Task: inverse folding
């Protein structure tokens, strides 16, 4: 009985093993030419799918919403040109079978249980497939490629738009279909959205003007060079720019409105316009006869005439230099050409060492390197008689000891004379017993600045010829 029982058990076990083997073989056969269980590609489960089935499934999910056959290629060219080409027009489609085949080749059907226990994830990318010849033919029919046989006869001429010249031509620009095809093909390799925008500016053939229009082009090149030029006049803190498009409007023209040239082939700039500009330049940069704003001792600001040696633009030399610069072309930064040059602009012309006369306060101050070193009461010109000392920025232009000052009805000896403006100067007044206050209003000088003798001696020894003198009320 025992032997019989053992035999039955062995038969049953053998049958079970045989059934298991047959079952494993059946499942293995099922996975023949199919992806094994536990196989994920791009994060998606493809178990039991054939190569074609997985390809269709994964292509449609690789870029959701992108159907390569319906992909739109937006061609963007010059002058706002746009045209659309559909992927279906040249057989565009995506296919992953190349990568999927490599993955399937690594799998053995009988390993399905191993994959079940140890799932694997793989990456696969689509290959873009299309008929390149059909794409070339489609792009060749684009409007931007065009039919050269239908191009109009060339017209090339200079035109005038409110004083600004431009070169007009009706020569049609054509895009090269082979370059277009190469550019679209390159873009398709990385297509990742339903609409593919392609700028084809670099696919156009060179814009060539026939040689017979060479004279017109040469003349325009001169105009264009002038128009793109500029001069920036710099003299701190001032900056003033003359742009070429302004000078372009100064060109002399013929009856047809086109610029004319002189015997040397140079454009002719209207002298009246050029001289008008140098007048403006002079107003901007000249300081001779200008004014400055001066901060008084009490903090108020007063505007006074500037009588210091200043800057004076050489208008004739500037006109010639401006003309030469724009005819040659270029962008220049430079200081204006001056006939005369000063020490500075605004309060900079005064510097930190100067004489200051506050005629309202009847005070004179002398500063050295910004520090007050001398101070005195004064008596300035008699206002009641119309001899008021002028308010201005001037300078000590002459010094003399023991001088006799002469006028129509007087001759007065002074020990220290410091001339600051014409016949007006700073000097001692030994005949006065008092200085300051309101003496100047009715008993002031003929216009000079009277100071005590002891102070005059100190000031005379301290100041140098050229020292600025600021006088104001």
Result:
């Amino acid at each position: 009985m025992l032997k019989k029982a053992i035999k039955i058990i062995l038969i049953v076990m053998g049958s079970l093993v045989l059934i298991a083997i047959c079952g494993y073989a059946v499942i293995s056969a099922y996975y023949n030419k199919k992806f094994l269980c536990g196989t994920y590609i791009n994060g998606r489960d493809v178990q039991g799918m054939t190569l074609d089935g997985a390809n269709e499934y994964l292509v449609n999910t690789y870029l959701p919403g992108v159907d390569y056959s319906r992909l739109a290629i937006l061609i963007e060219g010059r002058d706002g040109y746009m045209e659309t080409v559909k992927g279906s027009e040249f057989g565009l489609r995506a296919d992953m079978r190349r990568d999927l085949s490599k993955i399937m080749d690594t799998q053995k059907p009988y390993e399905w249980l191993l994959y079940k226990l140890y799932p694997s994830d793989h990456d696969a990318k689509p290959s873009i497939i299309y008929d390149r010849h059909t794409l070339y033919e489609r792009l060749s029919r684009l409007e931007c490629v065009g039919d050269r046989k239908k191009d109009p006869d060339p017209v090339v001429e200079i035109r005038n738009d409110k004083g600004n010249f431009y070169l007009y031509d009706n020569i049609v620009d054509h895009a090269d279909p082979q370059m277009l095809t190469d550019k679209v093909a390159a873009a398709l390799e990385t297509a990742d959205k339903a609409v593919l925008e392609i700028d084809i500016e670099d696919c156009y053939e060179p814009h060539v003007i026939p040689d017979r229009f060479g004279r017109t082009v040469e003349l325009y090149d001169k105009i264009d060079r002038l128009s793109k030029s500029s001069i920036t006049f710099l003299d701190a803190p001032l900056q003033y720019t003359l742009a070429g498009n302004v000078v372009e409007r100064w060109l002399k023209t013929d009856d047809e409105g086109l610029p004319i040239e002189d015997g040397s082939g140079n454009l002719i700039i209207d002298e009246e316009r050029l001289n008008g500009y140098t007048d403006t330049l002079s107003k901007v940069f000249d300081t001779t006869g200008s004014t400055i704003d001066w901060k008084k001792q009490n903090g108020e600001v007063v505007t006074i005439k500037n009588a210091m040696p200043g800057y004076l633009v050489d208008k004739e030399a500037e006109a010639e230099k401006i003309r030469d610069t724009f005819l040659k072309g270029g962008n220049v930064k430079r200081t204006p050409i001056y006939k005369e040059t000063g020490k500075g602009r605004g309060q900079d012309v005064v510097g930190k060492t100067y004489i200051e006369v506050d005629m309202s306060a009847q005070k004179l101050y002398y500063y050295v390197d910004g520090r007050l070193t001398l101070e005195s009461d004064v008596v300035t010109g008699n206002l009641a008689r119309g001899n008021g000392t002028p308010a201005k920025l001037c300078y000590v232009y002459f010094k003399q000891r023991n001088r006799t000052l002469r006028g129509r009805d007087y001759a007065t000896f002074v020990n220290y004379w410091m001339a600051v403006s014409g016949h007006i100067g700073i000097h001692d007044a030994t005949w006065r017993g008092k200085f300051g206050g309101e003496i100047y209003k009715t008993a002031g000088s003929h216009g000079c600045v009277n100071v005590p003798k002891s102070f005059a001696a100190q000031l005379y020894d301290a100041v140098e010829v050229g020292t600025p003198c600021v006088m104001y009320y």
Summary: The mean pLDDT is 92. The longest strand covers residues 410-421. DSSP finds twelve helices and 26 strands in the chain.
